[in-house]
Amino acid sequence: MRAALVRPAEEVHRHDVPLRPAAVAMAWLGVGLPHEVLAVPGVALAPHDVLVAVEMSTICGSDIHTVQGRRHAPTPLVLGHESVGRIIAIGDEGARAVDGAALHIGDRVVWSVTVSCGHCDRCLVGRTQKCRQLAKYGHARIEPRWELTGGFAGHVHLRAGTGIVRVPEALPAAALAPVSCATATAWAGVARGAALRGRGVPDPSPSAGEDAEVLACERVLVLGAGLVGLTAAVIAAELGGRVQIADPDPARRAFAERFALTAITPDDVAEEGFDLVIEASGHAVRAALDAVDVGGAVVLLGSVFPADPVPLDAERIVRGLVTVAGVHNYTGAELHAAAAFMAGRGRAHPFADAVGAVHPLAAVDAALVQAAAPGAPLRVGLTPR
């Protein structure tokens, strides 16, 4: 069922913010159609809303799937959910970051892909990314009073219920924009795997010391060296795991080796040899189930598009005491941890180099073509400035 839009009550007081010049968003109208420029002369902020000026957005695989017609999306919409920007206006009653601190105009921030109500049964048990009234940046139809709904724009209107995290000034935008999708999803997957292995909650801070080695001596396999898989492998290695990452693409394997990872081909994966297997491509679920050892865990991250069903050897899972879990999106706490990782241990790695090209916002159609082409960089960026 398609996610419903979170709709504020009509009687909510709103703070009008005129924009001179008008904000520009690139509106996607449907498969095979070019984007059109949407000018937004102002926004009406509800009491806890935030308006962000976009510094950079990156093109995620789901954006490509949308424009190719491989995933359903209402139109018109503004694509883009991997972004970093700066707060330029806040609703009359203020807004707070995930860590509870007050947000201020001028703060550099990343934000969650989801908007959650905070009071449904799913939100109350911590599954905010599956809120009953969920809205998603880059996936929601343009609505009256919520036109700036995605990152392929000069500004984004962040609704109350969005997880917002402040980020350091010193980090490059190319490293920070993917935090709100690839990095946070990777962190959520590794953290889930650590929990399934009884290893505790990972600490992303650079000063964590031995407390951060929650995967020490764990044999970890990551299948897929896209940005989610690459990031998951780096996180697992920084948490002490003995990590291998498998991908059929030699260019991706070579890029993974720049992160001090052991990169192998799928044919070189040993069967039944890993304590934790993270499937990040969506194409290697069978291989993930085959590679896990007795008592191990498999975390599925990549199966976010239609694919053929995978045969399940239930007897092997039962006799092998194997745990299989699916992770989709992330919570606000996981976004905060992912940003902290990128600002801490992640700084030692060339994540900014994953953005292999940056286009002006007006060239969004050409950027999407490049991002979908064979041999494309892991990310293509868009900047309105």
From TrEMBL:
Residues in Alcohol dehydrogenase-like N-terminal domain copies: 47-168
EC class (word): oxidoreductase
GO cellular component: cytoplasm
Key words of the record: Metal-binding, NAD, Oxidoreductase, Zinc
Molecular function, one GO term: alcohol dehydrogenase (NAD+) activity
Gene3D superfamilies from the UniProt entry: Medium-chain alcohol dehydrogenases, catalytic domain (3.90.180.10), NAD(P)-binding Rossmann-like Domain (3.40.50.720)
Pfam families noted in UniProt: ADH_N, ADH_zinc_N
Cofactor: Zn(2+)
Domain Alcohol dehydrogenase-like C-terminal: 228-342
Classification via InterPro entries: ADH-like_C, ADH-like_N, GroES-like_sf, NAD(P)-bd_dom_sf
EC number of this enzyme: 1.1.1.1
Family to which the UniProt record says this protein belongs: Belongs to the zinc-containing alcohol dehydrogenase family.
Protein name: alcohol dehydrogenase
Species assigned in the record: Microbacterium azadirachtae
Gene behind this protein: tdh_2
